[in-house]
Structure formats: C-alpha cells, structure tokens
Amino acid sequence: MSVHTIPQTAAAHDAAASISPRNRQRISMWLFVICFMLLGMIALGGYTRLTGSGLSIMDWRPVTGMIPPLSHAEWERQFALYQTIPQYKILHDGFGLAGFQKIFWAEWTHRFWGRLIGLVLLVPLIWFAVTGALTRGLIARLLLFFVLGGLQGAVGWFMVASGFDANSTAVEPVRLVLHLCCAFALYIAILWTALSIRTPSPAFIPATVAVVRTRRLVWCATILIGITIIAGGFTAGTHAGFAYNTFPLMEGHLIPQGYAKLSPFWLNWFANIPAVQFDHRLLATVTALVIGATVFSGLRTPQLGKPAQDILMLLGWAVLIQYALGVTTLLLVVPAWAGTVHQTWGAVLLTVAIVALHRLRGVGRV
C-alpha cells in the first residue's frame, strides 16, 4: 500500500489556492462525505467476509446488478447458481432459500454501496466542473479517482471469482489483500485531496531538531499502520484469527511452534497460520510503541503548535482503541461484529495518521 508516496507539489498547492474559499469549503465537504462512505464500504466488506456472504452473488453485472431479485423465480435462479459452488456444498448444504437470502442481502448491499459511491463522486463532479468551481487539474484528478473506483469493482470481482474454484469455501488471501490495498490507496488519495483543498496553505512550523524527529516518527507510524493493515488482510484471508485465541502467548509460547514450517521461508508470512497471526500481533505491538514514542515526542515539542499536537494525541488514543479491539476480537474467536469494528477502526487509525502528516507538511516552509 503506497502510504509513503503522498505528494504535495507546488502545482497541487497552486490549483487548490486558486479556488475560492466558498468553493473550497463545498468541494472539500463533498470529498469528506465520499471518504465517510468509503469507511462504510470498508466496514461492509469486513462484514460480508466474516459472514461468508461474499460468494452469494454468482454474476457480475456492473449496471443492472443494482436491481435485486424482484420475483420468487429470480430468487430461485440466484439460489440455484449459488448451489453450484463448493462453499454451498461444503458449508451451507441444505440451509434453504431463507438462509441464502440473508447472505445475499449482505453482499448486495456491499456492491450497491460501491455503486452509490460512484454516483456521489460523478454527479457533483459534473456539476462543479460545469459551474467552473474546479480547476482543470482537479477535474482530471477526480476523474481518475472515478476510473480507479470502477477498477476497484473489477478487482473485487477478480477476488470473488477465486472463491468459485474447486474445494474452495473462501476467496484467495492474496486477492483479498489486493482488493483491500486498492480500497485503502483510493481512500488515502481522496482524503489527502480533500484536506489539501480545505487548507491549501500549510501553517509554518520551524524545522527544529525535535520537530523533524517527530515528523519522521509520524511517517514511520503511518507506514507501520499500512503494513499492519496488510498483515491483517492475510490474517483474515487465511482465517488465522480463529486459531491461537489466547493473549499474549500463543498456546503457551511467545513465538508459536511451526512458525517456519513452510519452504521457502518467506511463504510463511502469507500462508502459514501461526506465522501470519504472530506477524500481525508483532506489527501491531511495534506500531503501538512507535505511536507512543511519536506522541511523547510531539507533546514535548511546543514548536509543532496546538493543531499538530492535538492530532498526535488523537493518534495515541486511536491506536490504544485499535489494539484493544484486536485483542478482544482474538479472544472472542472473531465474532462478525468484533471483526468488522476492528477492520473499520483500522481505517480510522490510518485516517488520523494521514491527517497528522497533512498538518505537518508545513515544517520548514515559509
């Protein structure tokens, strides 16, 4: 996930600064609404995965798929399609049409929400462009986001299709993580754009040794959050959270037995359940410690200013909540509600880190 490649070029600054203050408020608010909807999409994605709903819709219809089954015959057709895949035969054999409808609605809502996000992006984009509220550069960037959003839907289908393979009851972990990373990359890009439109001119922060150190720590924390999210995707994809449901030890061991049982060694990081879960635990702990050091450094550096210090304090509270949610999800053996909240709060934590980076972009700038 390209968390560390967020540009703040002079051209982007000039483009945002050329927009009137009123339009900056309106455009940034619109993009913040889309960000909020993307958080909802991430939550829905987690819920569909945890309830086994993601494979319930067997066909990909980007436009007509917005319309759910409207007749009993169509419900029967959809159910008959689902009965042909291994997940039904292995996990849900005999659960009936009512059970199928329950998982169908979860997946349909997930897909419908994605289409709705596309409309919320495209329709106001056309309006703002026609009324002259947007610069050419910003129009191009927002159109790119729309195209990438559509491609994200295609990536989602690519992921879902892997669950139709013989003897498969879930999607391939690598494709799941690809879908997750694309979602977060798009979310970060839209969030950064919204923040830059709202405040195109960063507040000057003197580049003292303590300030530079704190900014580097924020970068490290943000990158670690991104890597931990990716590790969490592999934990979800391999169902590693359903094993070793103790904390802090894993069946009485700090490092679980069988950590390196696969060859070559790197394969353990992606496909070996003991290693996948341990790595996610380790990364989460290191991330929490680095954020703790970041908060400590930031609060001891008054030159940062109150806005930057406030967001760093919020970052500290956010990581404590996320760590507690992770442990709770593990100890409860991953109930759907806990796993969904844990995944969603991971996105919130990343959001706070991105806002912190944005507030620190004025370091050393006059």
TrEMBL record:
Its EC number is 1.17.99.9. Pathway: Porphyrin-containing compound metabolism; heme A biosynthesis; heme A from heme O: step 1/1. It is a multi-pass membrane protein. Keywords: Cell membrane, Heme biosynthesis, Iron, Membrane, Metal-binding, Oxidoreductase, Transmembrane, Transmembrane helix. InterPro entries: COX15/CtaA_fam, HemeA_Synthase_type2. It is an enzyme of class 1 (oxidoreductase). One of its GO terms (biological process) is heme A biosynthetic process. The keyword Iron applies. The keyword Membrane applies. It is found in: Cell membrane; Membrane. Its cofactor is heme b. Pfam families: COX15-CtaA (PF02628). GO terms for cellular component: plasma membrane. PANTHER family: CYTOCHROME C OXIDASE ASSEMBLY PROTEIN COX15, CYTOCHROME C OXIDASE ASSEMBLY PROTEIN COX15 HOMOLOG. Interacts with CtaB. This is Heme A synthase. It comes from Gluconacetobacter dulcium. The lineage of its organism: Bacteria, Pseudomonadati, Pseudomonadota, Alphaproteobacteria, Acetobacterales.
